[in-house]
Structure formats: structure tokens, C-alpha cells
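Lab notebook: predicted structure, single chain.

Context: the supervisor wants predicted structures on file for every construct in the current expression panel, including those that have not yet been purified. This is the next one on the list. No modifications to the sequence; it matches the entry in the shared construct table.
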Amino acid sequence: QVQLVESGGGLVQAGGSLRLSCAASGLTVSNFAMGWFRQAPGKEREFVGAVRRSGTTLYGEPVKGRFSISRDVARNTVHLQMNSLQPDDTADYYCAAAPLSYYAIASFYADAGQYHYWGQGTQVTVSS
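Prediction complete. Output recorded below exactly as produced.
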């Protein structure tokens, strides 16, 4: 049984930082593309970023240069480091796993439909 469990959300002031974690069980994070998505109230789900099976990362435009994703293979965990947070970053953040090949094109990683497994989400609130 696959489980993805996010943690680390909370309330932070604008300009602050948070680090989210996604602990995986039932799958090996290095065998999957691991993505982060977010959804704010009344808005569509948005791609935040992903770490490919190769270990390289890619990010959505709104978070480039501020967010970074890392993978801890030993702990089977993926992290999302969020810096310079702004009120527009307020959302529920979800971790997800996709069985993408090494040769998958970038647009596949941003497609939520490619992800077979999802966590329950963790809430991030950024106050101004």
C-alpha cells in the first residue's frame, strides 16, 4: 500500500521560509517522479515543481528561484524548501508520485494526471 505523508506546513509571515516534507512508504522515491502541487481556495491546482528519477529538478514559473526540491533516498523522503514566501503562496500543498520514464518531457511533470499517488496535503498560510 502506497502512502505519501506531507508535513511541515503552517503559518509564516511574508518573506519567511518553510520546509515541507513528503515521507513515502510502499514505493521508492528514486523510482518515481516526485512532484509538488498546490491549490489555493477557489483556484485550480497548480504545479510547484518536481524531482525527476534522475534527481534533477524542475519548477513552475511562480516559484522559480524561491523554492527548491530535494530528495533523501536513504529516508525515502522528498523535501520542498520554500523561501521568500508571499501571501500568494498560501495554499494546500500536495506531494505526488508519477511513474514517468527517464525520458519524459518537462510538460509531463506538470500534468497532475500523470501522478498515480497523492498525499493528503499540508496547509501553508503566508500572512502579509
